[in-house]
């Protein structure tokens, strides 16, 4: 049985107050909070076996290397990648996408086409625009409807022999839409295109299976799944990671260096130049252990309950409009109150101890689509409660009374 009161005890930060009120943390789509079990792993690393990895013969270095590589295997297992060396440690989703976008410079030529969805995070738009500028490729957009669902029939018409790459998020951070990525991947493959799925917003809510999806690249940030900031993964099919050139040069990524010529290390080290976030990688593994112990099906079912309850309660407020009403969505609610700037609502909610995000959520094209400056976004995690939804609803009502 899922006991949210017990779960909340794992998160020390949830006990604190903000502006004299109990913290109601509803900004989980920006970053999740960290359970004591993961904090303990971080403290243990720096207290007991902090050392550089892969190089030292001494005990601490061996221990750190073992734990870091064990975590890679945990990540591999969780995402069901075929090989551990298909999991590249990165600093997060943004870094992961840039590795791929840069790597494709030599495979893309003028006139080739690159497709992105209309609901991407800036980190899954800008690197591809830069790629198109470098190569002369054309960026095309898969549009969406008012509900925030991709128009799959238009996607069909955009795909052609010219399509070389397709990029889409698994779940939109601004709208919560769960995209039909299996269909997107299969259709792209049918015309010979390569697919990168940005899984940053999906990883907290569901388990993506790399082999079942047959995806070419998939990206995750640990800080959105109860792990620390500054670490994440790039999954890539062995075939593609072998073909792509390294992103950064330096230590750890080489086989042999002379001033005449350097040969690169094999996977995954080819993409892991320099001293990595060792503690972060180990804590990433611990965060997956923590969430798997609760179980992703349990998490998804509970979050769905929260989403339905919050949607119903917020919808009762006069003048409130929700953006993103896809049939398949996760526990993210983007909304506005008629005639009120989202920032003003966010500021009043903060005074009440409620943390929400306001603005364009790094997805400005979505805001342009709805012709709005931004939204208030409440995003729920498995450690949130219905009582917290009630506090949010009361806060929004109070803000509305003050501002309208
Ligand atoms: C958070 C997020 C990103 C960016 O992740 P970083 O950890 O900031 O690199 C990209 N895409 C989506 C959908 C996100 O939610």
UniProtKB/TrEMBL annotation:
Alphabetized PANTHER family for the sequence: CYSTEINE DESULFURASE, CYSTEINE DESULFURASE 1, CHLOROPLASTIC
Superkingdom of this protein's organism: Bacteria
SUPFAM superfamilies, alphabetized: PLP-dependent transferases
Pfam families for this protein: Aminotran_5
Named cofactor requirement(s): pyridoxal 5'-phosphate
UniProt domain Aminotransferase class V: residue ranges: 24-392
Record function comment: Catalyzes the removal of elemental sulfur and selenium atoms from L-cysteine, L-cystine, L-selenocysteine, and L-selenocystine to produce L-alanine.
Enzyme Commission number(s): 2.8.1.7
Protein name: Cysteine desulfurase
CDD domains: SufS_like
Entry keyword tRNA-binding: no
NCBIfam families: sufS (TIGR01979)
Catalytic activity: (sulfur carrier)-H + L-cysteine = (sulfur carrier)-SH + L-alanine
Entry keywords, A to Z: Aminotransferase, Pyridoxal phosphate, Transferase
Matching PROSITE patterns: AA_TRANSFER_CLASS_5
Organism for this UniProt entry: Maribacter chungangensis
InterPro entries: Aminotrans_V_dom, Aminotrans_V_PyrdxlP_BS, Cys_dSase_SufS, Cysteine_dSase, PyrdxlP-dep_Trfase, PyrdxlP-dep_Trfase_major, PyrdxlP-dep_Trfase_small
